[in-house]
Amino acid sequence: QEFSEIGVLKFAACSSTNTPNSPLQEQRRASFQAITWFLFSNALRLIALMLKLGCWVLTVWAALNCMASVKIILETLLLNGHTPALFLLLSSADVKSLSPETLATIDSIAIFANGLNVAFCILALGLVWTGLANKQSAAFALLLAGFTAAWAAGFLADLAVGLAAPWVNIVSFLILGFGLAAAAIGFAQRTSSSKRFGTEGESPKASC
């Protein structure tokens, strides 16, 4: 935002060096510059907020996934329950008919998979607020790859059982897509501004 504001200041400074015109033309020019500055500065503020908004949306996604996985692990270990995935395709009677060895194997895989998901979400949250929030390009690239892979894994797992819970993947995709898009917009604005207007300390009149 600061770099882009410098560009507007350059425009205003250069415009002021033109040949003086009539008072009416000067008034119109001043009004135009004031309106342009108001619209441009507010647009920059909105774009600057997109990065923070994206960070919070990604935080919500990671937190919800982490809590769901923790709930599954605790229910399986402490309440002698079974992973909810069993009941997506099987009735309670079908589950009871399975051998203890089969149930133990399924529950073990579920605990391991959900444990990995908890670890991923914790790492993602740390990367969001220590890297992406500080506008680090490597953090954005890693989060984009990680979140995409995590969503794809969930979608393929659901696809393997005939899309038993498609609404979960749809909601997850919408939240994740919005968060990544918002962060990308805010991050791209910062990158393009720094390339166009150089360093922060550059004088607005330098290129007049």
How much β-strand is present in the residues? under 5%
Q: What is the averaged pLDDT score?
A: 77
User: Biggest sheet: strands, sense, closure?
Assistant: none
User: How many alpha or pi helices?
Assistant: 7
Based on DSSP secondary structure assignment, what is the total number of beta strands?
A: 0
Rg over alpha carbons: 26 Å
Structural class: mainly alpha
Given the C-alpha coordinates, what overall shape results? elongated
From the N-terminal CA to the C-terminal CA, the straight-line distance is 21 Å
Task: Spell the H/E element sequence.
Answer: HHHHHHH
**Which bin fits the share of residues in helices?**
over 70%
Parts with pLDDT < 50 across at least 5 consecutive residues: 15-19, 196-208
Q: How would you sum up this structure, described in words?
A:
The chain is mostly helical. 81% of the residues lie in helices and 0% in strands. It has 7 helices and no strands. The protein has helices at residues 2-15, 23-78, 86-89, 92-97, 100-132, 137-160, 166-197. Helix 2 (23-78) packs antiparallel against helix 7 (166-197). The radius of gyration is 26 Å and the shape is elongated. The two termini are 21 Å apart. The relative contact order is 0.17.
Offer a quick outline of the entry:
The protein is mostly helical and 208 residues long.
